[in-house]
Design goal:
This is Glycosyltransferase RgtA/B/C/D-like domain-containing protein. The chain is mainly alpha-helical. It folds into 2 domains: 420 residues, no CATH class; 112 residues, no CATH class. The chain is 59% helix and 5% strand. The strands form 3 sheets. Strands 4-3-5-9-8 form a 5-stranded mixed beta sheet. A hairpin with a 3-residue loop joins strand 8 and strand 9.
Length: 661
């Protein structure tokens, strides 16, 4: 062992903030283990082990001999051949999607192999053969192919909210005025909708194509902002690695396919992050600070949730400023060979401006018969009074399979799917923990990296901790893609720490495992394949076939698309979730909800819509008592024999009360 001959760690090297933090992380991981006895939750089951492994490996790296690790490098011939292999493979992904008409498990398997080859080039190419431009081109092309093959193979749109937003876009385009959405909260944050309309007019293309050519193209290109941000902190190799980690992340890919204001908000958030780190790392000019200010205003005018996440980032930057002004860190203690000493940037004016503008805009934003700000505060207060409590974990979208499996013993696959969904996140989280430990050392601490550390920590509280207390008002699933930006940067710093300090055998093992598992795990996660889930019996499909979309239009014409106020409660249309959302969000039949199907029984609704998807793959239904569940339902359980069939196209059937009854 590397500690042979030493009676204590302090004899080998005095305890420092990073070593104390690593030991504290081990103790925290140990303290979290008993929580698994009270509730079964995928993050409670896994995060303690990830934290313990990260802290343990960091301590090993910290107390090994001070020497630069000699990493094995790829031969020049292999380094030159791999980019061509990746490009040919990307062409294969396009051909495969064209031939099969959808992205299949074979597609995701090949995509995982190609992403691994990109990571191998980043990690193991020699300095002489390393070409960051070529690698960035591969990453961007991969992101474009991975997302646009899904958009190409999907007849309509991918996701749920997109139908509402494109309805708003269509109204603005038709009326040539923003007043078309004056009743909605996006009236005060219309940048996304105006961008799509403007793109349609300028390019003279339909609105759907305009969406793909504007927001759809910008999303993959925005990963370059992660490179620009990381390159302000570390060398090009690790900046390219951070870019790849972010581009391959499941939630990031999701917002590149489910193109809604969250997508554009993420782009502007990356702009804020880049500008913020830039003013902290260089002798900035008014142009740099203006970029930061304009990016933050763009977020406010694009999306409310993105705005709140941006405010968290700015608050983290302000706290980092305070820490370096009055806290235990000082610029005289900085290791200039790691980070250049620089006086902390005063951000109080920027923070006050953004908080003030956000409150002003939200106070004028209409939402649920009052302002958006008043409604959000009311909901939050109601949550604290009625449902908040320790370990009050509610089912999220990813746990629907668990709810559906309660009636019967879950299969091995049903037990493994929740862990497969979060495996990529856990790998990145482990690298992030290591990066956080590295930057808390007094000699390496600096306002920019502390901003990343605090932002990641606060955002993890919102996505992992608050839901365990029953507080989900902040829509935690929307935060992951934003969280991945600081995580990717800190994760790259963490892997860089391993590459420099661990012994070659451990380094190669860690990096190879990361390169092999991380991309594939991210691509198998539900967020990367919502239009055609890899685990189709555990996850709902958030896209529809041409027959299913044609049925929505036909049923709308058949019923006359009545106004919701003119529909009696017994005339409400019932079908599975998410299919029911298309009827209501497109206006085909405004009064639509999820059908209730008792366990082992049949639905008791007058107006129902059945589709073959309900019998073959995962669809969500309500239950008489308690939460709903994912289940496969046969047609006779939804449309009873005494009902009349008023519409069918082979895939979709609408049943109503029979005139004879």
């Amino acid at each position: 062992m590397f500690l042979v001959g030493y009676s204590s760690l302090s004899e080998l090297r005095p305890l420092r903030l990073d070593s104390v933090a690593a030991i504290g992380g081990l103790l925290l991981a140990l303290a979290m283990l008993p929580l698994q006895l009270f509730v079964s939750q995928v993050y409670l089951d896994t995060v303690p082990f990830v934290l313990a492994i990260a802290c343990g490996l960091y301590l090993v790296a910290l107390y090994q001999q001070d020497r630069e690790t000699t990493m094995p490098r790829l031969p020049t011939s292999v380094s030159m051949a791999l980019p061509s292999v990746v490009l040919v493979g990307l062409g294969g992904l396009i051909v495969l999607t064209s031939l099969q008409g959808e992205r299949t498990p074979v597609f995701f398997g090949l995509a995982g192999v190609l992403a691994t080859l990109i990571l191998v080039q980043i990690l193991f190419t020699s300095s002489r053969d390393f070409n960051q431009r070529l690698l960035l081109a591969q990453i961007v092309l991969f992101a474009l192919v991975f997302r646009f093959t899904a958009l190409y193979a999907t007849p309509g749109y991918i996701g749920i909210d997109i139908w509402t937003h494109m309805g708003f876009v269509d109204s603005i385009h038709a009326q040539e005025s923003l007043s078309a959405i004056s009743h909605d909260k996006h009236y005060a944050s219309p940048f996304y909708h105006l961008l799509v309309v403007a793109s349609s007019l300028l390019l003279d293309v339909p609105l759907r194509l305009a969406l793909y050519l504007s927001v759809g193209v910008v999303m993959p290109l925005s990963v370059l902002l992660v490179y620009a941000t990381t390159n302000l902190l570390v060398s090009a190799r690790w900046a390219v690695l951070a870019t790849a980690l972010f581009a391959f992340a499941g939630h990031v890919a999701n917002w590149g396919m489910h193109l809604i204001p969250t997508s554009l908000g993420l782009v502007f958030f990356l702009g804020v992050l880049y500008a913020l780190i830039r003013v902290m790392r260089i002798e900035y000019t008014i142009r740099d600070f203006s970029l930061l200010l304009l990016s933050s205003v763009a977020v406010i005018l694009t999306h409310q949730v993105s705005t709140f996440i941006m405010l968290v980032l700015l608050l983290a930057a302000f706290v980092a400023q305070v820490v370096f002004v009055v806290g235990p860190f000082g610029i005289t203690r900085l290791d200039t060979s790691v980070f250049r000493a620089k006086k902390p940037v005063n951000l109080i004016g920027l923070v006050v401006f953004n908080f003030g503008m956000t409150i002003f805009v939200w106070s004028l934003t209409p939402y649920r018969d009052q302002s958006f700000l008043a409604t959000v505060l009311s909901y939050f207060r109601q949550t604290l009074e009625e449902s908040a409590g320790f370990l009050n974990i509610a089912s999220g979208g990813s746990s629907g399979a668990e709810a559906g499996a309660e009636a019967a013993a879950p299969t091995l696959l049903e037990q493994l799917v929740p862990y497969i969904d979060v495996l990529g996140f856990l790998f990145l989280l482990g690298a992030t923990f290591v990066g956080c430990l590295y930057v808390v050392h007094r000699r390496r601490a600096e306002q920019s990296v502390f901003t990343l550390l605090l932002a990641a920590a606060i955002m993890l509280v919102f996505v992992l901790v608050l839901p365990m207390f029953g507080i989900r008002n902040f829509i935690p699933t929307r935060w992951f893609a934003f969280l991945y930006a600081p995580m990717a940067i800190l994760g790259a710093i963490g892997l860089r720490t391993f590459a420099r300090n661990l012994s070659p055998g451990i380094v190669v093992t860690c990096l190879v495992l990361f390169a092999l598992i991380y991309p594939g795990a991210m691509f198998l996660a539900a967020e990367s394949n919502t239009e055609n889930p890899v685990f189709s019996e555990q996850h709902e499909q958030l896209a529809y076939s041409e027959a299913e979309l044609a049925a929505v239009d036909s049923i709308g014409e058949l019923t006359g698309s009545p106004d919701g106020d003119n529909i009696r409660p017994d005339q409400q249309l019932h079908t599975d979730h998410p299919y029911q959302t298309v009827f209501s969000r497109t206006g085909a039949y405004p009064s639509t909800t999820t059908a209730t199907v008792p366990d082992g029984g049949s639905a008791d609704h007058d107006y129902v819509v059945y589709r073959t998807e309900q019998s073959t793959d995962a669809t969500y239904f309500g239950t008489a008592d308690g939460p709903g569940r994912i289940e496969q339902v046969s047609q006779d359980r939804l449309c009873s024999p005494d009902q009349a069939t008023v519409y069918t196209n082979g895939e979709v059937t609408m049943c109503t009360p029979s005139p004879a009854s």
